[in-house]
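ingest -> validate -> predict -> emit
validate: passed (alphabet ok, no gaps, 139 aa)
predict: started
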Amino acid sequence: MLVGIRHRAMSRLTCELLARELGWSIREVGTGEMLVDAIRRERPDAIVVDAGDFPACCTAALEAFPRDRVIVVGPEPDERYRTVALGNGAASWVARDQLGDELVTELRAVLGHEAASWTITDRGPAAHPDARRQPSGPR
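emit:
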């Protein structure tokens, strides 16, 4: 799991939320690091990314990174932001104000029903033998 939210405090809070709620090891895009480089380095099962970086993070980074494994975080609960993100192929969209209430649920939905059966480890969802799926959906 990779979190690529530009605002450092929001990024840390998101990582803490996901680690606490899911028990997974969550990686953060490093200070001064390009999102595309972090995607290449981490090869995540899914990413949580700012609306301003999507869909560029998928098209510019890795031709093969599946957009249906991207949750876009928008600046406010405005249907226009959601429509644009989903129209560009994102799996899900969550407003910053609703991250604590919706992100974990959306992430489980994005990664599929097998997420419910994953054993909690420090290696994250990739540790489960069924966690790697063939990419599907728009890229």
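The radius of gyration is 14 Å.
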